[in-house]
Amino acid sequence: MEYKLRKVEEREITSGILKASFKMWMDTVEADVVIVGGGPSGLTASKYLAERGVKVVVLERHLSFGGGIWGGGMGFPYITVQAPAHEILKDFNVRLEEVEEGLYLANSVEVAAKLGCGAIDAGARILTGIVVEDVILKENRVCGVVINTYAIEKAGLHIDPLTIDAKYVVDATGHEASVSNILARKNKELKLEIPGERSLWAEKGENSLLRNTREIFPGLYVCGMAANAVHGGYRMGPVFGGMFLSGRKVADLILEDLKKGR
Fold first, then answer.
1. Are 225 and 252 contacting, i.e. CB atoms less than 8 angstroms apart?
2. What integer is the mean pLDDT of 43-68?
3. What Cα–Cα distance (Å) separates residue 109 from each residue in 64, 94, 139?
4. Terminus of the chain with fewer CB atoms < 10 Å: N or C?
5. How many CB atoms lie within 10 A of CB 182?
6. What is the DSSP secondary structure assignment for residue 39, as one 8-state letter?
7. In whole angstroms, what is the distance from residue 215 CA to residue 42 CA?
8. Average model confidence (pLDDT) for the chain?
9. Three-class DSSP category at 154
10. Does the model's pTM come out above 0.70?
């Protein structure tokens, strides 16, 4: 290899980025599914949807995806996953170590990186630095999201947002359940109550998470910790089996609805 780079002009850099960005955004104004939150459940769902040919856009407010996985447990870079959810991590080529029968250990940094890569390789589009500040609500159905940049939100600037139309929206925003809370707060006539999550009880939290993963309003699904926050379930700490299964479940539910033409 020759260690000498091609001469590059500044205008080439700028024009290349702008052309690709405008093309990308024109292809993003409509999607089959918009997943709000690039954490473990959202990324899992996006992979299983995208590999079935569903047009998926994942919106993450931060510049990195993975949610709370990166920090593992209290900053120690490991998470635990119980059977059978470990099979999902195998789909993402994550290395696992069985530490107790049916309980597996995974490196948190590896998990976050491979979840994102797995979703992208399956065909999902992940956009970082994007916030959802509202939903599109028509004829008693959520049919898209209202978006802005995280930088604009943080700066407190009054700049009008843009939108993405979608057949389904998934609230995968974690503990905040921000999309569900927006819908409830702005449309009080719907009488949606969002109690928030309860204190930590791993076993109860994991099992209730899967029951709570479902459609809560026409066009709006919840998964991951957002599902427990919406239904008043317990939190779980650094065990992620329920999160991965929740992502898989919401993907299966949406695939079934797409098949029915809902």
1. no
2. 96
3. 12, 10, 43
4. N
5. 20
6. S
7. 15
8. 96
9. helix
10. yes
Q: How would you classify the pairing of strands 103-107 and 78-82?
A: antiparallel
Percentages of the chain per state (helix, strand, coil), in multiples of 5 = 40, 30, 30
Is there a contact between 49 and 169 (Cβ–Cβ < 8 Å)? Answer: no
Q: How far apart are CA 107 and CA 110, in angstroms?
A: 5
Residue 20, CA atoms < 13 Å, CB-side half-sphere: 6
Instruction: Count CB atoms within 10 A of the CB of residue 114.
Output: 21
| Residue 38 identity (one-letter amino acid) | G
| Nearest of 215, 204, 205, 201 to residue 262 by alpha carbon | 215
Per residue in 56-76, pLDDT tens? 999 999 999 999 899 999 999
> Angle, to 10 degrees, between the axis of helix 202-212 and the axis of helix 241-260?
10
The pLDDT > 90 percentage for the chain reads 97
